[in-house]
């Protein structure tokens, strides 16, 4: 009898050690995750502020090929990457529209000018004949003209150099200019003083350094394959975005606080463990979104809050089954295992149907709808892990430690005679 008691005490101490160890480990992981999230999680336009632009491709015959839109998106992305925007969102909407979100940008005019210009570069003689186009452009750089003013340096390939040499040979010494046009607009009209035979030219004019940088950026990224018409432009101020984020966080804290109070009052000790698991759950979801390089938006926060509700729902189902099993005469440990086992099918059914709905939203939706679907999916999968695995092991080790044996502390009321979990 003493041997059995000694073995039971050893098992209880081992369970207590495992419980405390897991508690400390999860707390440390959550703390480190939250600290990383603050500096690495990307915020969407509605939370950080910036510029939203909706563009539509226009062709003369009215039809726009899929490949044309894909090439336009690639060129726009290259321009924005050189523009220096952090984490832009560039996506196709429908058959011929492109949605562009530029977080942190407060100058919509400049942004639209850069992403929407077709960048058709032409060199024309006084008779307006095109003698050379940007198709032979090898490089565009920031340089200075002979007066020290900002200018655009151009370098052509072999074919372009030969064409430009022939054009300048005809005009050299005549006092006539070569018109340099971008999208049909004259940006410079230098007079040809001598033959240029090395394939290098300079676009001069009354440019500021920023204008030259923007022009170089556009020319480097190449011409858009189709005309893009601006349908909608919207600027979200950083103050408004920060206010939205603050309100969302405040709502999240209030909601989590109310859930904590509810779980504690109804389920006592297991409610406390479940609330701890929910804190770990939120850290895991945000950590996964950060690792996936996802962008958190207001709809994404809505998906996160919804998944928190489903995580609580899973815990409620498990705990109610646990109470039923205990009332039927099982020990605390046996009731816990049976409760998790019997609740599993119900939890799986509910979460799978929600995952199917999230998949449909992601496949057919665009922009914020997809963000909602991604956050909801990650949240549901993570909630299943925390509810079925983390909470289960924490409670298993806590009950095994045999430090809490009163069923009332597990939310079970109305039973005076109960069986403890001391049997091993």
Task: Give a short summary of the structure.
It is built from 10 helices and 13 strands.
Strand tally is 13
Largest sheet: 4 strands, antiparallel
Q: Give the total of domains.
A: 3
Q: In percent terms, what proportion of residues is strand?
A: 15-25%
Output the structural class: alpha+beta
Order of adjacent strands in the largest pleated sheet: 3-4-2-12
Low-confidence stretches: 416-424
Shape: elongated
Query: According to CATH, what is the class of the largest domain?
Result: Mainly Alpha
First-to-last CA distance: 13 Å
Question: Topology of this structure?
Answer:
Blueprint: H1 2-40, E1 42-43, H2 45-48, E2 50-58, H3 66-83, E3 89-93, E4 97-103, H4 108-116, E5 121-124, E6 130-133, E7 137-144, E8 150-156, H5 158-171, E9 179-182, E10 185-188, E11 200-203, H6 209-221, E12 227-236, H7 238-291, E13 295-296, H8 298-327, H9 332-364, H10 368-400
List keywords for this structure.
424 residues; alpha+beta; Multidrug efflux transporter AcrB transmembrane fold; Alpha-Beta Plaits; Gyrase A, domain 2; 3 domains; 4-stranded antiparallel sheet; 10 helices; 13 strands; disordered C terminus
If you had to describe this structure to a student in words, what would you say it looks like?
- The chain is built from 10 helices and 13 strands.
- By secondary structure, the chain is an alpha+beta fold.
- The strands form 4 sheets. The protein has a 4-stranded antiparallel β-sheet with strand order 3-4-2-12.
- Strand 5 and strand 6 form a beta hairpin.
- The longest helix has 54 residues.
- The protein is elongated.
- The C terminus is likely disordered.
